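User: Here's a chain of 244 residues. Predict its fold as tokens.
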Amino acid sequence: MSLLISNDDGVYAPGLEALYQSLKSISEVTVVAPDRNHSGASNALTLENPLRIQLLSNGFTSVSGTPTDCVHLALNELCECPPQMVVSGINAGANMGDDVLYSGTVAAAMEGRFLGLPAMAVSLAGKRHYQSAALYAKLLVKKLLSEPLPQNQVLNVNVPDLPFEQIKGIKITRLGKRHQAEMIEKGVDPRGREIFWVGPPGKIADAGEGTDFHAIEQGYVSITPLKIDLTATEQLNTLTAWLD
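Assistant: Prediction complete.
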């Protein structure tokens, strides 16, 4: 078995190392990740600049691009043997609700699915117990390879920041929802030029039972299947009627 691992926190992130150490016990693992933090990069591709790679002493490959660049480059050029699955993570911080639209972690998994492979994004709802998330990732990789998802779906996995033995189990969830993001903060840099800081994410608006937010709050691993096809099929007939 062969796996491709990437992330959005960068090639030196502790979550990436924890994921690698866990999965290499069950598979050959190739690691291709950004040379720096690309949190919030979503599905961005680098189109105006060349990508540069560097093979690190630990065997990981560093790429001067986004998470999507990394998976795209790995699957089309760098992997000598085609992997059977793409795993992205372990992200430092949860990717739940609306956050998945901006997540580079989720985007790396989506790029793997676009290119025809089963894919999973794994995030830790904190920055401490990466080993817990790594153990669940290994369990889920085995399951996903034995029972693959439909072609247009990705698993988005969030793990509570708890010791493994304190996690209560797994819940299959839907995405929750946040309120609108907080306002942009305006300031001035030391040279007197205007600067703007994007505000933090909005507070949680929908964390009811069945959501990813609720599962994590209750101490469960959240697994949300995500569809890559964004078409609002229920509106097709309505919009067609506009033309009549």
